[in-house]
């Protein structure tokens, strides 16, 4: 059968076969395959773009978190620096009282006829020491004499009324003279004790308590007279309680900086932190997380899965090993003039008033500041993790990614690396007038410790608190028409506490120099001044609320006043012993009065009405620069310009800010590699240009993933 015949048969039977000439549908298949491939490519590109964008956004969030955390650290460091300098200023106040006010009555005091006008004071008639001796009548200057002879009292004659009258009159004069002799001793003891230990700023509570006890304690009446007399020169907290309070506030802020690093922080964690008994302890964590959280858009991330981990070096006490502070403590001798009544054989109760220079008390260590440990670097490192949303994810769900960042405060200082030698000077001067038996440290029975050092501070090259260049203008400020006034003393105190030339570039303190309205002010406006002084308030609890939860504020304050050396009760006893000194003056009255005053000051702190308006949690620092030109020392001694006072890092782009200067720490991002020894794993330490210090608190890994990631990070 031919081929043609076979085709006909197939057609006639109705059978059909593939028509190889019909090629329709092949293009659709190709287009479908290409479209699918294109869509996969587009999805891949979009996913890659979304991942890159998510990674960039998450890195930015980590950077913002690191800067926010470092900003919290910088603020605490600034306040620590301010408090550290305030401790130095309070020491200046004590030096002014001891070296100037306490020695105005001597022959070599500024303004006394025949006294030198330049050089250093020698305190020649008091053993070469700034021995406190106060007078309040120029015509009755007992401080310039080593002995005041008693009157010769004649015998009476029962047959001679005129002679008896004369005898009684002389006895009255002698009794008044002896009372003044005892009162002078009480004045000097009380003044020094108050300068050292007072906890009643305006002395009202102590005076009222003494008046109430004057009937029960025969010595209380003379103490009341002494208290009323010295209120002008001894108001305000004593140097010990003031420095103890400032030291404790510094330790609280240090605790905030060294707060333990938190891991697994989510949005749900923030509210418990905010509701904590001490939310300031979590400020760093709250600010860091919220900065990261709010910078991430809802479309790119699952916001409920955003997590922050703080990577901070752990310390043995459960906190972080970031800020190390070494206290500066000093001990020195304090002397005042005593006047002892010694029978002179002139009959009928006559006695000579003999002066002795005696130690006030064995001083416990006095904190005057801190130095920062150079082997500790304050920094803040974080890991931020989030689930990135993808347009197409063949594996389902989102992809979890992590980024790392670190920042640190920089550009300022807490204080210089100085020790006790900055605040004291060796003193081995003559002790021939000291003590009843020639021993400068023996007062009747007890043997007091002498340190052979006295308080000291250099304000400018060759000028300290014994220099006439400083004392002369200060003495002039205290006087109005050659009479020392309360207002004049306050003006001189403010002047003595002014930042000095020797402190340029070494300390950080709040100031509003120059007087430029464009610059944010530290201090309140004059209308809001407290006791005529502008103040700068900030949060710096005496003890953190968390510590207070374990005991009462009264118990806590006793620990604060002790400073590891003397408790509040012992402080009160020391005051009473100091003022009584071997049975002279006041004993039980002063002990009880000062014990009560500690409790009252605690109550005033809790009510926010402490000295200069300070509270238990909020401290108020006064402007270190005098408000009046009448209270300004010469520019050869103190700072007067913003360039001298504002010495922090100052390279902003704004020329106005450059000219105005900056105060305090700035913040910057830092390489993670600098904080971690990625090359050797041990041994080497990162080093910066900060005094060439090698830091020991290296960046830790918080888990195996972080360790692996940090090993690969090169920035």
Instruction: Determine the number of helices (DSSP H or I, runs of at least 4 residues).
Output: 18
Mean pLDDT: 78
Strand order in the largest sheet? 2-7-8-17
Instruction: Give start-end ranges of low-pLDDT stretches.
Output: 430-439, 442-448, 563-587, 678-689
* Percentage of residues assigned to helices: 25-40%
In total, how many beta strands?
Answer: 17
Structural domain tally: 2
| Class by alpha and beta content | alpha+beta
Distance between the termini: 88 Å
Q: What shape does the CA trace take?
A: elongated
How is the main sheet built? Answer: 4 strands, antiparallel
Radius of gyration: 38 Å
Could you tell me the strand content as a percent range? 5-15%
Description:
This protein is of the alpha+beta class and 715 residues long. The protein contains 18 helices and 17 strands. It has helices spanning 3-13, 26-99, 161-197, 204-213, 220-234, 239-257, 267-274, 283-295, 468-478, 486-496, 545-548, 553-562, 568-580, 588-606, 642-645, 655-660, 672-675, 704-712; strands at 147-148, 307-311, 325-330, 335-343, 351-359, 366-372, 380-388, 399-410, 424-426, 453-455, 458-460, 463-464, 479-480, 483-484, 535-539, 618-622, 666-669. It has a four-stranded antiparallel beta sheet with strand order 2-7-8-17, covered by helices on one side. A three-stranded antiparallel beta sheet has the order 1-5-4. A hairpin with a 7-residue loop joins strand 4 and strand 5.
């Amino acid at each position: 059968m031919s081929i043609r015949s076979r085709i006909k048969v197939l057609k006639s039977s109705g059978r059909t076969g593939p028509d190889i000439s019909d090629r329709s549908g092949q293009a659709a298949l190709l287009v479908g395959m290409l479209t699918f491939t294109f869509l996969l490519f587009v999805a891949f590109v979009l996913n890659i773009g979304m991942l890159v964008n998510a990674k960039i956004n998450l890195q930015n969030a980590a950077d913002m978190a690191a800067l926010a955390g470092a900003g919290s650290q910088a603020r605490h460091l600034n306040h620590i620096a301010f408090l550290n300098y305030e401790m130095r200023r309070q020491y200046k106040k004590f030096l002014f009282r001891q070296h100037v006010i306490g020695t105005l009555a001597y022959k070599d005091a500024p303004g006394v006829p025949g006294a030198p006008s330049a050089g250093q004071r020698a305190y020649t008639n008091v053993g070469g020491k700034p021995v406190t001796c106060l007078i309040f009548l120029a015509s009755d200057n007992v401080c310039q004499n080593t002995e005041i002879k008693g009157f010769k009292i004649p015998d009476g004659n029962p047959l001679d009324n005129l002679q008896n009258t004369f005898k009684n009159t002389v006895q009255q004069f002698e009794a008044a003279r002896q009372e003044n002799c005892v009162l002078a001793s009480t004045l000097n003891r009380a003044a020094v004790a108050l300068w050292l230990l007072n906890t009643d700023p305006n002395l009202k509570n102590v005076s009222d308590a003494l008046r109430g006890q004057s009937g029960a304690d025969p010595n209380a009446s003379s103490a009341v007279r002494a208290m009323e007399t010295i209120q002008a020169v001894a108001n305000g907290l004593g140097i010990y309680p003031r420095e103890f309070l400032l030291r404790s506030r510094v330790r609280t802020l240090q605790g905030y900086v060294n707060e333990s690093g938190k891991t697994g922080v989510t949005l749900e964690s923030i509210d418990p932190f905010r509701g904590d008994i001490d939310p300031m302890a979590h400020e760093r964590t709250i600010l860091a997380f919220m900065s990261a959280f709010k910078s991430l858009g809802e479309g790119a991330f699952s916001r409920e899965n955003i997590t922050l981990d703080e990577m901070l070096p752990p310390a043995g006490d459960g906190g972080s090993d970031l800020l190390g502070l070494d206290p500066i403590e000093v001990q020195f001798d304090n002397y005042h003039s005593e006047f002892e009544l010694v029978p002179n054989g002139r009959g009928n109760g006559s006695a000579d008033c003999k002066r002795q220079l005696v130690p006030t008390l064995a001083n416990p260590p006095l904190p005057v500041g801190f130095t920062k440990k150079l082997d500790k670097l304050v920094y803040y490192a974080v890991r931020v993790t989030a689930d990135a949303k993808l347009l197409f994810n063949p594996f389902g769900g989102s992809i979890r990614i992590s980024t790392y960042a670190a920042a640190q405060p920089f550009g300022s200082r807490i204080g210089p690396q100085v020790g006790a030698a900055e605040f004291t000077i060796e003193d081995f001067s003559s002790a021939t007038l000291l003590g009843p038996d020639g021993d400068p440290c023996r007062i009747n029975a007890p043997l007091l410790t002498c340190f052979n050092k006295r308080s000291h501070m250099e304000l400018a090259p060759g000028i300290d608190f014994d220099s006439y260049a400083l004392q002369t203008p200060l003495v002039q400020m205290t006087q109005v028409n050659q009479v020392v006034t309360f207002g004049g003393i306050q003006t001189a105190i403010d002047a003595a506490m002014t930042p000095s030339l020797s402190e340029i570039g070494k300390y950080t303190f709040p100031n509003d120099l120059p007087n430029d309205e464009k610059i944010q002010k530290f201090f309140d406006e004059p209308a809001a001044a407290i006791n005529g002084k502008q103040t700068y308030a900030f949060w710096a609890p005496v003890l953190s609320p968390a510590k207070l939860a374990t005991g009462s504020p009264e118990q806590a304050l006793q620990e604060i006043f002790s400073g590891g050396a003397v408790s509040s009760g012992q402080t009160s006893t020391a005051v009473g012993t100091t003022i009584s000194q071997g049975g002279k003056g006041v004993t039980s009255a002063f002990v009880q009065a000062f014990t009560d005053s500690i409790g009252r000051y605690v109550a005033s702190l809790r009510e926010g009405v402490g000295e200069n308006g300070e509270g238990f949690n909020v401290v108020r620092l006064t402007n270190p620069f005098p408000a009046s030109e009448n209270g300004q020392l010469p520019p050869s001694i103190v700072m007067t310009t913003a360039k001298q006072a504002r010495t922090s890092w100052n390279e902003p782009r704004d020329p106005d800010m450059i000219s105005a200067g900056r105060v305090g720490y700035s913040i910057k991002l830092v390489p993670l590699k600098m904080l971690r020894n990625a090359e050797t794993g041990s041994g080497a330490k990162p080093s910066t240009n900060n005094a060439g210090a090698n830091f020991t608190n290296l960046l830790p890994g918080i888990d195996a993933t972080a360790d692996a990631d940090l090993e690969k990070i090169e920035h």
